[in-house]
Write a structure and sequence with these properties.
Layout lengths: L2 E6 L4 H12 L6 E7 L5 E7 L2 H10 L6 E7 L14 E3 L4 E6 L5 H10 L10 H17 L7 H14 L4 E7 L2 E10 L4 E5 L2 E5 L11 E4 L4 E5 L4 E5 L3 E3 L4 E2 L15 H7 L1 H9 L3 E2 L4 E2 L8 H6 L2 E6 L1 H18 L3 E5 H4 L10 E7 L5 H12 L4 E5 L5 H5 L2 E4 L12 H20 L4 H21 L3 H11 L4 E6 L3 H16 L2 E6 L17 E4 L6 H13 L4 E6 L3 H6 L2 E5 L7 H19 L18
Parallel strand pairs: 18-19, 18-20, 20-21, 21-22, 23-24, 23-25, 25-26, 26-27
Antiparallel strand pairs: 1-4, 1-10, 2-3, 2-4, 5-6, 6-7, 7-8, 8-12, 9-10, 9-11, 11-15, 12-13, 13-14, 16-17
The structure holds fructose -6-phosphate.
Fructose -6-phosphate (F6R) binds next to helix 9 and helix 16.
Length: 621
């Protein structure tokens, strides 16, 4: 949440900052701003409520100069989305200017203390506290004899200030006294430094750096980076100077292009045959009829010892975890619990060292998922990650894990990450299954089915025109139910989440048979039910649930297997998908629901890639 970008070097900083903010806009988009040093060493500020394009227009009208600056795109936590509350924020009399991602929990008491010292607050944000606090400690250091321009003085002021903050931060700071320097610091909110010849970059994630440099250093908590054009110094709050570990990015700028698609979300939906293939690549051990993983970092002996698995995640990733529960329990016979990370982090369930934890996350930065994983690690449980973003905090802190290799997911609504997560969970179910009860033949069958999946998903995408047409008939409806059973129950939850988050239409997902215990009261002519009803062991029972809805005049849209006439006799509209084994159905049946949400949102005039109030990477609690 919130995107930070900074640059120091020889390029036109304004161009770089605006391009970087556009690339980071998925992290928050209610206001944006930049601060740059001009040729005379003065700091210029431009801030606007609204999207980055509005800031960019303001800068076109009133340009900023220079080759050093910082920028921010905001997802509001404290204070409304106004010009004043937009970052960067200024401390003291303009000695310090900074951008911040995160939440300062003790801001109210710090604000009181600083006001008592005479500092004047101009915004409602928690961030302004950090700016004044650093300005205050800078002043104190100078009174103690520190040179105002000395790096040592600035660093001490920052270090003392950061120790007083409770909460999370990613920070990029400019000092009026030092136009040749940017300071970046992190605790709980991600920051990556880009290294180039005669230039350095800082950003919340690598996307602004693509096309500029491939060499990056990921900051860890309590690290401070001092950037000049030619130098990167890294320090840890407790252990002092560190030598930066430079890594090479494996992304290219084409990965973050929309290509010929109107929206990232549609592009990402259509990428799924490829992303599912990527999730499986190199992960079959054909001779042993099992899967293999390079990064679990546990021996077969240790893995066999596991008697319980906890899958923890948020949002869409939590829905993937629910599918994982069904998969692992069916094929590996290991008990699985699915925990909301936001609950697990504060609960105290009886977990043992025989419990294995998987944190499932696209971004690898979700604050609750990270905290839940850390809590489990603290208690001695092996904690692994199923993660998309390489080098993210969760990927780095996990004891091991599996990457999705889905490429950047930029649409705020998660699509391809979900199907990749489910693919990886299917591979894990196969792997754990083959270590325990699953036969060689059953393993072989799973591998063959999985290998056929990219082709099946490509055929699934052919329902796009039908979905678009159906969407146009339901776009005026304000309440939807999504219903499915067994493997398709999490799909119903995910379909409902997709619709509500991007079209602002109320939708609820339920196990189809649970409907009778309450939600059936909602059914009327204006409340459509989307039934996920591919052929499965309890197919006739789901058809009965559909009949119950029809008997109450509820419109029914069904997601069904190709050639299914029985469903067509009951439902008002049917979207056909290829038939696959039950355990693979979520990958196939979720796709038309992604498309349905996309088209309803589009027809309702919503911003599909940037839905209101949301941000891609939820780095605050
Ligand atoms: C929904 C969506 C969110 C995320 C959730 C977890 O479309 O994108 O619900 O799934 O915020 O994010 P990650 O997977 O990055 O931990």
């Amino acid at each position: 949440m919130c995107g930070i970008v900074g640059y120091i070097g020889h390029r036109n900083v304004s161009d770089f900052l605006i391009e970087g903010l556009n690339r980071l806009e998925y992290r928050g988009y209610d206001s944006a701003g930049v601060a740059t040093f001009d040729a005379n060493g003065a700091i210029s500020l431009r801030k606007r409520a609204g999207r980055v394009c509005e800031l960019s227009e303001a800068i076109d009208r009133d340009p900023v100069e220079g080759t050093v600056g910082i920028g921010h795109t905001r997802w509001a936590t404290h204070g409304k989305a106004t010009d004043e509350n937009a970052h960067p924020h200024t401390g003291g009399n303009g000695e310090v200017v900074l951008v911040h991602n995160g939440v300062i929990e003790n801001y109210a008491s710090l604000r009181g203390q600083l006001q008592a010292l005479g500092y004047v607050f101009r915004t409602e944000t928690d961030t302004e506290v950090i700016a004044h606090l650093i300005a205050h400690h800078l002043d104190e250091q100078i009174k103690l004899g520190g040179e105002p321009e000395s790096e040592d003085t600035l660093l001490k002021a920052v270090e003392v200030s950061l120790r007083k903050l409770k909460g999370t931060y990613g920070l990029a700071v400019l000092f009026r006294a030092r136009p040749d320097l940017i300071l970046a610091a992190r605790n709980g909110s991600p920051l990556v430094v880009g290294v180039g010849p005669g230039e350095h970059f800082v950003a919340s994630d690598p996307s602004p750096l693509l096309g500029y440099t491939e060499q990056v250093v990921y900051l860890a908590d309590h690290e401070i980076a001092i950037l000049t054009a030619d130098r990167l110094d890294l320090r840890h709050r407790d252990s002092g100077r560190l030598s930066p570990s430079v890594q090479t990015l494996d992304q290219v700028s084409a990965d973050i292009d929309k290509g010929d698609f109107e929206h990232y979300m549609l592009k990402e939906i259509f990428e799924q045959p490829q992303t599912i293939e990527n999730a499986m690549r190199g992960r079959f051990e054909e001779d042993e009829a099992t899967a293999k993983f390079g990064g679990l970092n546990l021996t077969a002996q240790q893995l066999r010892h596991i008697d319980r698995i906890v899958l923890t995640a948020c949002g869409t990733s939590w829905h993937a975890a629910l599918v994982g529960e069904y998969l692992i329990e069916e094929f590996a016979r290991v008990p699985v619990e699915v925990e909301y990370a936001s609950e697990l982090r504060y609960r105290n369930p009886p977990l043992t060292d025989k419990t294995m934890v998987f944190a499932i996350t696209q971004s690898g930065e979700t604050a609750d998922t990270l905290a839940a994983m850390r809590e489990c690690q603290r208690k001695g449980m092996p904690s692994l990650a199923i993660c998309n973003v390489v080098g993210s905090t969760i990927a780095r802190e996990a004891d091991g894990g599996v990457y999705l290799h889905a490429g950047p997911e930029i649409g705020v609504a998660s699509t391809k990450a979900f199907t990749s997560q489910v693919t990886v969970l299917t591979l894990l179910a196969l792997y754990f299954g083959r270590m325990r009860h699953l036969s060689y033949q059953a393993g072989k069958r799973m591998i063959n089915n999985l290998k056929a999946l990219p082709e099946v998903v490509a055929r699934t995408l052919e329902c796009h025109d039908a979905v678009q047409e159906i969407a146009s008939r339901y776009l005026g409806m304000d309440n939807f139910l999504y219903l499915g059973r067994l493997y398709n129950f999490p799909v119903a939850l995910e379909g409902a989440l997709k619709l509500k988050e991007i079209s602002y239409v109320h939708a609820e997902g339920y196990p189809a048979a649970e409907m009778k215990h309450g939600p059936i009261a909602l059914i009327d002519e204006r409340t459509p039910s989307v039934f996920v009803v591919p052929r499965c062991g309890i197919y006739p029972k789901v058809i009965s649930n559909m009949e119950e809805v029809k008997a109450r005049k509820g419109p029914v849209i069904a997601i069904a297997c190709e050639g299914d006439r029985e469903v067509a006799d009951v439902a008002d509209d049917v979207i056909y998908v290829p038939e696959v084994d039950e355990y693979l159905q979520p990958i196939v049946t979720s796709i038309p629901l992604q498309m349905l949400a996309y088209h309803i949102a589009l027809l309702r005039g919503c911003n599909v890639d940037r839905p209101r109030n949301l941000a891609k990477s939820v780095t605050v609690e």
